[in-house]
Q: What sequence folds into this?
């Protein structure tokens, strides 16, 4: 017994398709497959088309009509057997018509159910493929895709202002020469600012500015203390307005990647 249990098929967990199991495929969950779904659709469609019974079925109608013909003597004049056969002619035709109609209905139900099952499976397959595709894409180049989204968004914004007659007081994101740096900031730098000691808990904004046509004027006097500002013409820095010990305002310039103070004008 100990030698048998040492065979390859007993040394592995899960499915082992070696030895006597060679060529045997693992069990598949057919209860969740397209055929099972088609059968479920078929049962639903059949129930919907049948509905509540409001009259006798085909066989009952056949017997009733035959009996009525016999009692009425519609085929009288021949032998008893001829009378019986003659009385069943019309009911039998109607009986076969009813059976044929039910067969056609069942065929139609099966066809519709099959189509619904196939469409349902195709929908699941497409959704799965889309999820796998998006997952693979995000895994390979997540930040590149995020940046591309920002660039596309800003490009559409520029087009909107051009169509409306010019840039006017357009936001800085609509000015083409700043779109690359703004996309880099929002993609690579801004998400990481909260993890940098000197930037924790501070608001983040674009440096105060005004726009006229495609010209941008940056206004340091409009800076608010306690807010970090990104200046898109100076991509490597963050700016903050502070009040010095002498009560006069000053500007601190940080390295955007490390938070290191590069310059503090409030200290002279």
A:
């Amino acid at each position: 017994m100990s030698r048998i249990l040492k065979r390859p098929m007993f040394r592995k967990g899960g499915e082992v398709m070696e030895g006597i199991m060679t060529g045997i495929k693992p069990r598949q969950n057919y209860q969740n497959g397209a055929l099972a779904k088609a059968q479920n659709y078929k049962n639903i469609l059949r129930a919907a088309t049948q509905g509540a019974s409001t009259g006798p079925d085909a066989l009952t109608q056949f017997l009733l009509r035959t009996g009525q013909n016999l009692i009425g003597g519609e085929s009288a004049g021949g032998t008893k057997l001829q009378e019986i056969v003659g009385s069943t002619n019309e009911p039998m035709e109607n009986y076969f018509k009813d059976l044929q109609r039910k067969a056609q209905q069942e065929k139609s139900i099966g066809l519709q159910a099959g189509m619904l099952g196939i469409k349902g499976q195709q929908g699941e397959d497409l959704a799965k493929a889309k999820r796998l595709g998006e997952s693979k894409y995000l895994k390979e180049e997540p930040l590149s895709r995020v940046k591309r989204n920002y660039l596309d968004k800003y490009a559409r914004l520029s087009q909107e202002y051009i169509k409306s007659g010019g840039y006017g007081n357009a936001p800085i994101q609509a000015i083409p020469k700043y779109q690359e740096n703004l996309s880099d900031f929002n993609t690579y730098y801004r998400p990481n600012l909260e993890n940098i000691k000197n930037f924790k808990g501070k608001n983040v904004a674009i440096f105060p500015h005004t726009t006229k046509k495609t010209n941008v004027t940056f206004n340091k006097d409009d800076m608010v203390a306690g807010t970090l500002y990104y200046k898109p013409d100076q991509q490597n820095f963050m700016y903050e307005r502070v009040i010095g010990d002498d009560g006069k305002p000053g500007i601190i310039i940080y390295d955007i990647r490390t938070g290191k103070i590069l310059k503090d004008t409030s200290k002279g």
Remarks:
- The mean pLDDT is 75.
- The beta strands are 203-206, 209-212, 215-218, 227-230, 237-243, 249-255, 261-264.
- Residues 80-140 form one domain.
- The first strand starts at residue 203 and ends at 206.
